[in-house]
Amino acid sequence: MAAPADSLEFSVNQEIKGNKHSGKLKLTSQSILYKDSVTGRSDQISFDDLDEIYWRRVADGNQLKIELLSGKIKKYDGFKDEHLKKLSSYFRNNPDKEIKQEDLSIKGWNWGKAEVNKDELAFTADDGKKAFEIPLGNVSNCTSNKNELSLTFHQNEDANALTMMECRFHMPMADENSDPAAEMAAMITSRADVLEAKGNAFMTLPSIQCLTPRGRYDVKLFDKFLHLHGATHDFKLTYTSIIRLFLLPHKDQRQVFFVIAIDPPIKQGQTRYPFIICVFDKEKYEEINFDLDEAEVEERFEGKLQKNMQGPHYELVSRLMKAVTGRKITVPGNFKSNSSLACMACSYKAQSGVLFPLERGFMYLHKPPMHLRFDEIDNVNFARESTKLRSFEFHIQTKQGQKHIFGTIDRAEYNCFFDFVKQKGLKIKNINKHEQQRVENFSDSSGDEYPDHYANKLKDEVRGMEDEDSESDDSDFDPDKADPEAKEGGDEEFDSDFADRSTDSEDRGSDASEEERPKKKKEVKEKKPRKEKSSKDGVEKKTRKKKNKDGPKRAMSAYFFFINEERENIKRDNPGIKVTEVSKIAGERWREINANDKAKYEEKALKDKERYEREKAEFIAAGGEMTKAAPAKKQKKSASSKSPTKSPAKASSSAKSAEFVASSSSDSDSD
């Protein structure tokens, strides 16, 4: 806390739609100034607007509550007990106000009196102390049903997991002629940021093209909020949630960006939109008309707007939003790129966009859009890209520890951009004390007294790459010179005996030559005998019955007698016909003949059947068998599993592994 003789400064918190924002409260001899560290918004309170000042004990330390004559209430938490004396002295000397100490009810009673005081709803318990207060700016909807009042609140995604969504009050009727719930609802609706439209919009802007959220929307302006109506999505946001307006030219000089920064962000599903980015053609002219009387337009907007206005489309929309929201419009400052533009082409996380160096921060459009204020930046850094020489990176480190990297910035932009960053007083991480005195030209910095070390580093790396290229020899490659052993038959790269090349002295002797080392003899795996396939559960497979060649010939049917007789006729009528076609035609003719013709062949079949039965009986009487089972296959004799024994001479002349020696010894023992 800095405390000059005529000013005080405190680090405090302020509640914004259910979320705590940290900031700085500065009290000077002229006014009271609060700057939000999260959004960067600044609120200034003049002494002439002060009404009442209260000091209260709350959950987060002590609270300073300031009521203004304009109907607004400001609350700042996080004060310590010892700050009361300094604040009392300040308000007593400068605006000539006394701080009143107020106690809150902590008994937990739920019966009392609800009343609207300026821009908040206060509930006072029966003991005369206030139990809680609800800022009307947090109310999104208010309804009454008989003697019940229901309040719905704006939801903030940045707030804690537990947030209040709805609050209800029971208001009994004092008499039949009055409805306290309806009267309270009307009073709250007139002062709260209610998102329910009552009446028609006083202005409609049709088919506005938006990049974020993408699409075309009809923008309808109501008294307390604006409504974006699209083909698939609708968004409503209050004017109090709009914290900044930007009007930025596109790099092609044919379009203009109009950016609306909002807090809390609007949400669609899991996607949050902290910025609404509109795009307008620079040469497009439009005419807009208010759905209000000319006198009403003059009174509401204090002469800033007229009932009928004409001009460039982007200019009309920006003037309208400025008058409705009461926010200033941020435009590009003095920065000019190498191409005399207000922005630089760059990329962020593989998404191409443009970076606007503004007077109080950096604005990047458009995926994802972001606004980085100078007061929240800890340091910046200029770095060379690892794969490109014609571009560089710009790193931004925030005080919260977040790092943003903007890459593929053209090298020609370095001079003007470096001068801009240095002029704004930002801490440059890779600059030394000599560069702080003078920044030389990016291309001609090597011969000056105070060189640009970043530029020299780039030049040295480029020069080193050129030297490496110049030292390379273009003569033909000579394999004999490159590898003399290749010509003389030296060792190959493939090591076929990696075990013998071990460096362990215990595995091989260092003095042993290649010839003295015993060669390992390859073992030949014996073939295992194939197992015989056995049937399941010991049941033998059925063998196919063979045709009995010695038995009588089976009888033919009437159809076969017909085919044997008709086959030659079919072949004669169809020369070169296939056998399958003969059977097909014969079958068709068999189906076409009448019963009298079939009787001839059926009679032949009957006689042939009698012949078969007679010959069969004679064959069986003579001791013959009609069917005979095929003999089962004999099992193949399995090969011997014993391996041939090695001769002692051969065994001693070859090196054997422990496993091989063990198997050999077992064979010799068995012999």
UniProtKB/TrEMBL annotation:
<dbReference type="Pfam" id="PF08512">
    <property type="entry name" value="Rttp106-like_middle"/>
</dbReference>
<keyword id="KW-0805">Transcription regulation</keyword>
<dbReference type="GO" id="GO:0035101">
    <property type="term" value="C:FACT complex"/>
</dbReference>
<dbReference type="GO" id="GO:1902275">
    <property type="term" value="P:regulation of chromatin organization"/>
</dbReference>
<dbReference type="Pfam" id="PF00505">
    <property type="entry name" value="HMG_box"/>
</dbReference>
<dbReference type="InterPro" id="IPR035417">
    <property type="entry name" value="SSRP1/POB3_N"/>
</dbReference>
<dbReference type="InterPro" id="IPR013719">
    <property type="entry name" value="RTT106/SPT16-like_middle_dom"/>
</dbReference>
<feature type="DNA-binding region" description="HMG box">
    <location>
        <begin position="552"/>
        <end position="620"/>
    </location>
</feature>
<dbReference type="GO" id="GO:0042393">
    <property type="term" value="F:histone binding"/>
</dbReference>
<dbReference type="GO" id="GO:0031491">
    <property type="term" value="F:nucleosome binding"/>
</dbReference>
<dbReference type="GO" id="GO:0006281">
    <property type="term" value="P:DNA repair"/>
</dbReference>
<keyword id="KW-0804">Transcription</keyword>
<dbReference type="InterPro" id="IPR024954">
    <property type="entry name" value="SSRP1_DD"/>
</dbReference>
<comment type="similarity">
    <text>Belongs to the SSRP1 family.</text>
</comment>
<feature type="compositionally biased region" description="Basic and acidic residues">
    <location>
        <begin position="478"/>
        <end position="489"/>
    </location>
</feature>
<feature type="domain" description="HMG box">
    <location>
        <begin position="552"/>
        <end position="620"/>
    </location>
</feature>
<feature type="region of interest" description="Disordered">
    <location>
        <begin position="623"/>
        <end position="671"/>
    </location>
</feature>
<feature type="compositionally biased region" description="Basic and acidic residues">
    <location>
        <begin position="532"/>
        <end position="541"/>
    </location>
</feature>
<dbReference type="InterPro" id="IPR048993">
    <property type="entry name" value="SSRP1-like_PH1"/>
</dbReference>
<feature type="compositionally biased region" description="Low complexity">
    <location>
        <begin position="640"/>
        <end position="671"/>
    </location>
</feature>
<keyword id="KW-0227">DNA damage</keyword>
<dbReference type="InterPro" id="IPR050454">
    <property type="entry name" value="RTT106/SSRP1_HistChap/FACT"/>
</dbReference>
<dbReference type="Pfam" id="PF17292">
    <property type="entry name" value="POB3_N"/>
</dbReference>
<comment type="function">
    <text>Component of the FACT complex, a general chromatin factor that acts to reorganize nucleosomes. The FACT complex is involved in multiple processes that require DNA as a template such as mRNA elongation, DNA replication and DNA repair. During transcription elongation the FACT complex acts as a histone chaperone that both destabilizes and restores nucleosomal structure.</text>
</comment>
<keyword id="KW-0238">DNA-binding</keyword>
<dbReference type="Pfam" id="PF03531">
    <property type="entry name" value="SSrecog"/>
</dbReference>
<dbReference type="GO" id="GO:0003677">
    <property type="term" value="F:DNA binding"/>
</dbReference>
<feature type="region of interest" description="Disordered">
    <location>
        <begin position="461"/>
        <end position="556"/>
    </location>
</feature>
<dbReference type="InterPro" id="IPR011993">
    <property type="entry name" value="PH-like_dom_sf"/>
</dbReference>
<dbReference type="Pfam" id="PF21103">
    <property type="entry name" value="PH1_SSRP1-like"/>
</dbReference>
<protein>
    <recommendedName>
        <fullName>FACT complex subunit SSRP1</fullName>
    </recommendedName>
</protein>
<keyword id="KW-0235">DNA replication</keyword>
<feature type="compositionally biased region" description="Basic and acidic residues">
    <location>
        <begin position="498"/>
        <end position="526"/>
    </location>
</feature>
<keyword id="KW-0234">DNA repair</keyword>
<feature type="compositionally biased region" description="Acidic residues">
    <location>
        <begin position="466"/>
        <end position="477"/>
    </location>
</feature>
<keyword id="KW-0539">Nucleus</keyword>
<dbReference type="InterPro" id="IPR000969">
    <property type="entry name" value="SSRP1/POB3"/>
</dbReference>
<keyword id="KW-0158">Chromosome</keyword>
<dbReference type="InterPro" id="IPR036910">
    <property type="entry name" value="HMG_box_dom_sf"/>
</dbReference>
<dbReference type="GO" id="GO:0006260">
    <property type="term" value="P:DNA replication"/>
</dbReference>
<dbReference type="InterPro" id="IPR038167">
    <property type="entry name" value="SSRP1_sf"/>
</dbReference>
<dbReference type="InterPro" id="IPR009071">
    <property type="entry name" value="HMG_box_dom"/>
</dbReference>
